[in-house]
Amino acid sequence: MKAIVIGAGMGGLCAAIGLKRIGFSVEVYEKVREIRPVGAALSLWSNGVKCLNFLGLEKEVAALGGAMDKMAYHDGLTGDEMTGFSLDPLYRDVGQRAYPVARAELQSMLMNTLDKSEVHLGTELISIEQDEESVTARFVDGSSATGDLLIGADGAHSVVRPYVLGKSVKRRYAGYVNWNGLIEIDDSLAPSNQWTTFVAEGKRVSLMPVAGNRFYFFFDVPLPAGMPNDRATYKSELKEHFSGWAEPVQALIERLDPARTNRVEIFDIDPFKQWSRGRVALLGDSAHNTAPDIGQGGCSAMEDAVALSIALQTNTYGIEDALRRYQNRRAGRAGELVLRARKRCAETHAEDPDATHKWYESLRQEDGSRIMRGILSNIEGNPLDA
């Protein structure tokens, strides 16, 4: 059996690894000629880590993960701690630590798990054809690939999605812009083993430890879509947006390197239930483009890869049947996470200022248990729950 995977992002590579582990030959096709991960890092929660463990990558992901032992929120204006607590109870409950990881390093590790001959860069999909026996992908350069199934893991701007749905869908602007990057750990900014977040005015600044003595940082600012994006003005823009904020925030702005800082407008897509069409199925952002507000976009793609492998390994009524079962197993949960992230985004970024103010006040009364219950509710329901 041969699987064609369109897209060499996190989801596509995990799918290829999972399918290869159950005996498929795999070919991954990626339109870009050089892999440049979007975003500096991601918060890989316990469900995502479990998926990588399942794929045989336990030691590799642990080596990339930061030591995130604690979590804290601070008032962005005064710097005062609103709440701080250990994440150990959560980790013990689910049986696995979380690992914030640098995206480039995670993607490189996944890529190196496959043979070089199995990944084809600079190969852009233009059309799909299928019959009762096979599916064929055709590419811009005139080449083609034929296999037993095709997985569309080609991201938010998916070419495979319209083929599966029979129509195009619009992305929805989440209402804010995110600046992110990596910086050397400095305890004057935040503790080296803690996810620290400053909140005020519907904005966020976060510092999260990753391997290599680095913090992953991000700034969130509610702004209209389509504003100019000029690296030369990143620092001045952030100084304006965070004027009057606490000293650690000011110090972070001063130390960041604009040349190594990303700026992205955040979008999502309304959930939909049809993920498969015959021998073709969607996976990752092509199926459930999710805002990053609950840290589950990448984890959800990894869940897809595991669920896909299990469906194809355990069901024997053919490819189309297995892909429908995969779809039915995943669409509801993934869609719910999209909506949870959307709700969280609205609360965090002052879509309703009164609701955001109430959230700030609740943080001052928080002992960690309510926040960890929320994180747990996102982790539970994954394909590897035991």
From TrEMBL:
GO terms for biological process: purine nucleobase metabolic process; urate catabolic process. Coiled coil: none annotated. Residues 2-338 form the FAD-binding domain. Signal peptide: none annotated. Its cofactor is FAD. It comes from the Bacteria. It holds the Pfam family FAD_binding_3. InterPro entries: FAD-bd (IPR002938), FAD-dep_Monooxygenase_BioMet (IPR050493), FAD/NAD-bd_sf (IPR036188), HpxO (IPR047712). GO terms for molecular function: FAD binding; FAD-dependent urate hydroxylase activity; urate oxidase activity. Keywords: FAD, Flavoprotein, Monooxygenase, NAD, Oxidoreductase, Purine metabolism. It catalyses: urate + NADH + O2 + H(+) = 5-hydroxyisourate + NAD(+) + H2O. Pathway: Purine metabolism; urate degradation. Its EC number is 1.14.13.113. This is FAD-dependent urate hydroxylase.
